[in-house]
Automatic annotation (TrEMBL):
Alpha-D-glucose 1-phosphate binds at residues 101, 166, 181-182, 192. The gene is glgC. Belongs to the bacterial/plant glucose-1-phosphate adenylyltransferase family. This is Glucose-1-phosphate adenylyltransferase. Residues 289-362 form the Glucose-1-phosphate adenylyltransferase/Bifunctional protein GlmU-like C-terminal hexapeptide domain. The lineage of its organism: Bacteria, Bacillati, Bacillota, Clostridia, Christensenellales. Pathway: Glycan biosynthesis; glycogen biosynthesis.
Amino acid sequence: MIKKKKCVAMLLAGGQGSRLGVLTKHRAKPAVTYGGKYRIIDFPLSNCIHSGIDTVGVLTQYEPLELNAYIGTGSPWDLDGITGGAFVLPPYVKGERGEWYTGTANAIYQNIYFIEQYNPDYILVLSGDHIYKMDYSQMIEAHEDNKADATIAVIEVPMEEAPRFGIMNTDESLRIEEFEEKPKKPKSNMASMGVYVFNWKKVREYLIADSKDEKSSNDFGKNIIPAMLTKGERLFAYPYKGYWKDVGTINSLWDANMELLQEEPGLNLYDDAWRIFSRNPNKPPHFVDRGAKIKNSLVSEGCYIYGTVENSILSAGVTVEKGAVVRDSIIMQETVIREKSKVLKSIVDEEVVVEEGASIGGKGEIAVVGNKAVIRAGATVAAGESVPAKRIVKNTTGGVS
């Protein structure tokens, strides 16, 4: 018999992340590398275990292979217990029919059976797209104190950015009176973080009703939350004051990584009280040659540095050869930067080879190179240019074969 749980977390990790361009061409956004050592999904998974939530359904859909392999049994996050764990939940055929997840609410609806095994009091719905630390147990406690049916985590954003988010309008007690999905003229700057606590029995009714509505988008923000407000359910906002970053674009991903190099970064990765766990590549310590120059950079295990690395973040197994320069850039796993080449203000994906004398990026927009691409000797990838995965750039104008 499966043990009853107070709360089950449902982590929505199936997003395509199209705004990240070539970086998510062959992987889901939550699997994208961050900070040289982590994947985006490490943050909500680590938050769960720190918050005392040991049962997490990870709902995958788009390009799930890399993400599924990375999560594995959930052991890096201590989510491999006998009575709980991390469970990968892709769409599947039921009876004679099956369908993709058509929206955030539909993804939870399709996994009602999984949730009901644990008979939870609450479900915690999370997005796999954000970088932040948060104690969800405090949010659940506020939910209980308010005798709420749903609680939505919110963060204050600049008013000019508010139209990009779902916006909460509340009374003095933080009870939500109105929810506006990406309003042109927002009435407040309290933006939804995509973190929800629901009373399971209550939201289950709304999920079932929503599944029968052919006109519904099957989305929490567009359908479930407005329906609950219309019926007078008790919905409350939960203000969050810490660091939170949506890394859904190339610029925001680059900014979030570069912030780690500031003298006092907004996100402390060295906090032993709230460690961010990840799957360790088990490589030897990084090696820095006596002639190498490293300044204000994060260099992960297994790297070999013979050239110059400045204001950059290098993931495990990166090689920077003699005379090569890496500056203001993010270099992902197992990439090789050969002699006398330059990588400036760029994001370079995994297993890329930048051959001798090649050049990537410069001043202005961020250059991006996709997984396993090859930049031939002497070739140039201009600032702001994007090279697809596995392509070969072999001339000085950024052309690909």
